[in-house]
Amino acid sequence: MTSLVHKDLAGGVATITLDSPPNRNALSVRLLADLADRLHWALAEPEARMIVLTGTGKVFCSGADIKEQKASGAPVTASFPEILTLIWDSPKPVICRLNGTARAGGLGLVTACDFAIAPLTASFAFSEVRLGVVPAMISVPVLRRVEPRAAAEYFLTGEVFDAARAAEIGLISRAVPEEELDATVAHYAELLIQGAPEALAITKRLVREVPGMPFEEGLRRMTELSAERFTSEEGQEGIAAFREKRPPKWAVR
């Protein structure tokens, strides 16, 4: 059976591609299973320093596969929390390269990623309430990215909005002309690949954890972390490489 999600590895970048254009890359049981498999592969692959998640066709992901949904029993997206967690907790940076429009559950994938780049022609909508359901699972990553009033506006109305607005409210990182999409993703990838693997993983965590810490506790814990990283193997290698004007050992050649 042909996989609905493809994988590729080049230059330290693992690219994972949703490839189910007949149903607009909807989150079917098969696609979710294939996506989980590809994510596990990328996370375990030593040569993969970062991950790019993208799709084929005009739509990045249209959300749950409604045709598979049954009136009773577990939803077809029962495995979705695991996938969102894999992306969110990934120690490797994840860029979402939106090849086009995203709806509902697809926006869970978008907001679970560290970066999301979309063409200006893409559109977005949380269409759940118009179907009598709610943006339940995806609210966990979405509400950590999107401004509260904007989230309420689009969750409640289901209104379609464009990529420029998506960037304005924090749903995506950048909205660019379609012809600049690949160059922009490559730019981010090039910057990220220069970072030390452990340092990137730790920095991802502190960006999320520090804002919730009491001020004094945050300073104490970050002082300890700073000292730890300066004396770590990566820290010592990075400082030595800087002084010797050479690439560090983790640099992709």
Description:
It is a single chain. By secondary structure, the chain is of the alpha/beta class. The protein contains ten helices and ten strands. The strands form two sheets. Strands 1-2-3-5-7-10 form a six-stranded mixed beta sheet, with helices on both faces. The chain has a four-stranded mixed beta sheet with strand order 4-6-8-9. Helix 1 links the parallel strand 2 and strand 3 (50-55). Helix 1 runs parallel beside helix 2.
| Number of H- or I-type helical stretches | 10
Strand content: 15-25%
Structural class: alpha/beta
What radius of gyration results from the CA coordinates? Answer: 19 Å
Mean pLDDT: 95
So what's the overall shape? globular
Number of strands: 10
Helical content band: 40-55%
Strand order of the largest sheet: 1-2-3-5-7-10
Q: Distance N terminus to C terminus?
A: 36 Å
Main sheet overview: 6 strands, mixed
Report low-confidence residues grouped into runs of 5 or more: none
Q: What order do the SSEs take from the amino end to the carboxyl end, as H and E? A: EEHEEHEEHEEHHEHEHHHH
What are the SSEs and their pairings?
Layout lengths: L4 E6 L2 E6 L10 H16 L5 E6 L3 E3 L18 H9 L5 E4 L3 E3 L2 H7 L2 E5 L3 E3 L13 H4 L5 H10 L3 E2 H6 L5 E3 L4 H13 L3 H13 L5 H16 L2 H12 L9
Parallel strand pairs: 2-3, 3-5, 4-6, 5-7, 6-8, 7-10
Antiparallel strand pairs: 1-2, 8-9
Helix pairs in contact: 1-2
List keywords for this structure.
253 residues; globular; single chain; four-stranded mixed sheet
